[in-house]
Amino acid sequence: MGVESVIVWLIIGAVAGWLAGVITKGAGFGLVGNIVVGVVGAFVAGWLLPQIGLSFGGGIIAAIINAAIGGVIVLVVLSLIRRAA
């Protein structure tokens, strides 16, 4: 994996994390937290969406959509854990 690939992952993660924070209304964690949420969300969506039969195709836009969906799932789970604690 080259440096360019890592930079693309971070950009997609940042955008997806920001989108997930906007969708869940303020549950974001700042720039670094949003990148982490976006990257973790990409992994969650990469596993979950094919399991339920959803596919958005390829490309950067599809990757951002997938990661944002996964990021929303991660943020919802984190907010439920916060409320329980």
Query: How many extended strands?
Result: 0
Largest sheet: none
Q: Which regions have little confidence, pLDDT < 50, spanning 5+ residues?
A: none
Number of domains: 1
Fraction of residues in H or I helices: over 70%
N→C terminal distance:
39 Å
Can you describe what's shown?
The protein is an all-alpha fold. It has one domain. The chain is 80% helix and 0% strand. The chain has helices spanning 3-23, 30-51, 60-84. The longest helix has 25 residues, at 60-84. It starts with a helix and ends with a helix. The model has no long low-confidence stretch (mean pLDDT 82).
Entry keywords:
single chain; 85 residues; mainly alpha; 0% strand; globular
In short:
The chain is mainly alpha-helical and 85 residues long. 80% of the residues lie in helices and 0% in strands.
Layout of strands and helices, then pairs:
Elements: H1 3-23, H2 30-51, H3 60-84
Helix pairs in contact: 1-2, 1-3, 2-3
